[in-house]
């Protein structure tokens, strides 16, 4: 079983730990969304609809942006996890971001992001092991590695292109190599995400 | 002035003990955080900012990080607003270029409060370096001290000039594409253009294998032109501004690479075919040449 992964990000203080997991064919997405909506403190996660994730790089860009906002005290949402979800959007509409990138009852595959934060005098009360166990108990899906290869299997490119207004660019359509084309689209999405809120 | 001091007296003062050997300048907060790829490398310093090479998200992905440090002589509120304004102007232009398919670095992240902009690291070397190396190799090839060919201007049809002519053509096309996208660069020089080596299966691959030196000479100029540093760029489609862009490049090229100056016409020829009003811009360029960069005679 591919367990929860601890990701080391560059230029991230040791106070922050990023955990990632990918679940395929999740049966209880409605339950997961309900926990977020009811602000259940035990479910402080970013549950991301994996079909809106183009790559690890794009996902981690959102995670890094969310953590930077958390550290700077400039978050627009209640916590770093909801901030991850809105960081995937390229505009400032928060409820739209939750709807597009967050878990919905209709979601099939889910990327879970958990950020553990230790503050001075109060280290994070959870360990990665605790988080792994909690997810294993409550997410009814098949855990796979959160790799580019696995993510690519579930990416919904037409949806991503629509969300980030990437249709009608003739030079993109002219790229014959599928890999090069996706790379250009991925970079455009990441740039658009970086510009959100500016 | 009395008797000259002994040589020891003109030695530079010893640096203060607390000046770190790694960086003379304060790093932005982001670069004070741990990085598995090691400390950031200061690449260049301009009047407004410093460019570092560091990593982005993972140790294996290099990035160019541009830091606009706060200026102590400016009022803090004004300083923050100016920095924010300039970073946002630059990122909007970068994003516009990318959407239009102009080869520029991709944007990775922005932190206006720190004055930091992170971009894709463009591999390769600046056009300035590649052209100068080309000219140096050419001079070595014709080492006549009596004013042989190596010291003369490069002629367009001379043997071995084809790679340079090709590069000039790609420069003209790159500038044309930029202007077509509605962007004026504001500081076009051969230092602000990179030659990014073609990816393996992308771009022209020519089959000839001459001796090693000739091959090196050809391959170093081979690559895609990537325009960088949009710190002085603006959005607009005025022929006048476009002509000034070309004029600045022409002057910069002439003074940086005088021996290749005659080839600049290739840049303009290639530019002419890139978009509809390019010929009008070239007409305007003739006016700009007559009077210089400033129209208003102010500033």
Structural overview:
The complex is a heterodimer of chains A (198) and B (299). Helix content of chain A is 45%, strand content 14%. Chain A has 198 residues and is an alpha+beta fold. Chain A has a single domain (5-195), classed as PF0523-like (2-Layer Sandwich). In chain A, strands 1, 2, 3, 4 and 5 form a five-stranded antiparallel β-sheet that branches. In chain A, helix 2 packs parallel to helix 9 (178-195) and helix 3 packs across helix 4. The radius of gyration of chain A is 16 Å and the shape is globular. The termini of chain A are far apart. Chain B is of the alpha+beta class. Chain B folds into two domains: 37-120, 2-Layer Sandwich (Phosphorylase Kinase, domain 1); 125-291, Transferase(Phosphotransferase) domain 1 (Transferase(Phosphotransferase), domain 1). Chain B contains seven helices and ten strands. Chain B has helices at 76-99, 127-141, 162-180, 212-220, 239-256, 264-272, 278-291, and strands at 41-45, 50-56, 58-67, 107-111, 116-120, 125-126, 183-184, 193-196, 224-227, 234-235. Chain B has a five-stranded antiparallel β-sheet, covered by helices on one side. A three-stranded antiparallel β-sheet of chain B has the order 6-8-9. Chain B has a two-stranded antiparallel sheet with strand order 7-10. Chain B is globular, with a radius of gyration of 22 Å. Chain B starts with 40 loop residues before the first strand and ends in an 8-residue tail after the last helix. The model of chain B is unreliable at 15-22 and 204-218 (pLDDT under 50). The chains are: A alpha+beta (198), B alpha+beta (299). The interface between A and B is medium-sized, with 28 and 34 residues. Chain A: Its main location: nucleus. Chain A: Keywords: Nucleus, tRNA processing.
